[in-house]
TrEMBL record:
It comes from Billgrantia ethanolica. This is Phage gp6-like head-tail connector protein. Pfam families: Phage_connect_1 (PF05135).
Length: 96
């Protein structure tokens, strides 16, 4: 599987040091896992640029807000329409 690399994520986050490599790696794994579930399938291979951008957006949110707990009505996470715009064309749809 083509995955977002640690270096790509660090570049996106503008992190220069290696102190948070383990955290960033785990955030990439979490973001890719979430996006695979959102898409309803495995991540596309090779990973298209919009899907890669969505992974990086989610990694950025997870990194920036890693200390915050989402509490309804008190600064909880808001849905990012860009995330959906990037991913919706790649979602699996089943006809029943």
């Amino acid at each position: 599987m083509t995955t977002v690399t640690l270096q790509e994520a660090k570049d996106h986050l503008r992190v220069l040091e290696d102190d948070e490599d383990a955290l960033i790696t785990s955030l990439v794994e979490a973001a890719e896992g979430h996006i695979a579930k959102y898409l309803g399938d495995d991540l596309p291979e090779p990973m298209p640029a919009p899907v890669r951008a969505a992974v990086l957006l989610l990694v950025g949110d997870l990194f920036e807000y890693r200390e915050r707990q989402a509490i309804t009505g008190v600064g909880g996470f808001q849905e990012n329409p860009t995330f959906q715009l990037l991913l919706n064309p790649y979602r699996s749809t089943e006809v029943l």
